[in-house]
């Protein structure tokens, strides 16, 4: 089994509204996988893992007819499709009509696996890999010290809260406005719900510089990445990433990393792209993503994911 799925323990955890799921706790991930320069293997793929924003979705957030057809054709050929995104579960309605019977998505940069079978508004958490409140509070404190002016929002399974100074960056109105230290307190609001990730925004810093600074400041207390063009960071539990959760899901299905084809465009996709047997950076991808992937396709607005899927299916005939 991959190093990504070692030292895994699972337990049932209660979730609000009478919903139950599996909470997964993993030790720190020290190795993602093969080096990007390794030639892509020729093993027939069994699973396609694709990011959404900037990758599968066009810039207007639509899913093109060509892409819908390619996903359906892949599934008809027996290739499972996973959406692997930084989005929270409640933002998955945009693709839940296109899952064609499989209906699983990795959300929150690996913090949750969500069953989409019920359609829009009925998503069910299958696995949750939470950010411990103690780690979250440490990360907030350390990053405030390292980058004064940082403001925070807190993403939970069914709630979204933010500090008063946090800008309007997202689709919804927050459930509560309060300092992050209050939101993350052991007896704070939503204390019965797991914390999936923290969003940290800085109004002045360069996005990549902010990411580097935050990783140095926080260390192994949390995993930090970014998927936004602005200086907006996403902070998850130690070892939690798209790659490590995808590896866990694949291990449960008996699928090796050589049998996975992955697509992405931003730094939060890097670990997944280096882990997968075949991986593709979009034509619009961040330079770190281009360096990590074993291949490249055209931009999201040109249906780059569909282009590769169509080629894979043609080669199987």
What does this structure look like?
- With 317 residues, the chain is an alpha/beta fold.
- Helices cover 28% and strands 23% of the residues.
- The protein is built from 10 helices and 16 strands.
- The protein has a 10-stranded mixed beta sheet with strand order 1-2-7-6-5-4-3-14-15-16. A 6-stranded mixed beta sheet has the order 10-9-8-11-13-12.
- Helix 2 (65-76) packs parallel to helix 10 and helix 4 packs across helix 6 (207-218).
- The radius of gyration is 19 Å and the shape is globular.
In short:
It contains ten helices and 16 strands.
List key phrases describing it.
317 residues, ten-stranded mixed sheet, six-stranded mixed sheet, 28% helix, globular
Give the strand line-up of the largest sheet.
1-2-7-6-5-4-3-14-15-16
Query: What value does the Rg take, in angstroms?
Result: 19 Å
Give the tally of β-strands: 16
Cα end-to-end separation: 31 Å
Task: Spell out the helices and strands N to C.
Answer: EEEHHEHEEEHEEEHEHEEHEHEHEH
* Beta-strand residue percentage: 15-25%
Helices and strands, with pairings:
Blueprint: E1 8-14, E2 20-26, E3 47-50, H1 52-56, H2 65-76, E4 80-84, H3 93-96, E5 104-107, E6 112-115, E7 124-128, H4 133-146, E8 151-156, E9 160-162, E10 176-177, H5 180-183, E11 195-201, H6 207-218, E12 223-225, E13 232-236, H7 242-253, E14 260-264, H8 270-275, E15 278-281, H9 287-292, E16 295-296, H10 304-316
Parallel strand pairs: 2-7, 3-4, 3-14, 4-5, 9-10, 14-15, 15-16
Antiparallel strand pairs: 1-2, 5-6, 6-7, 8-9, 8-11, 11-13, 12-13
Helix pairs in contact: 2-10, 4-6
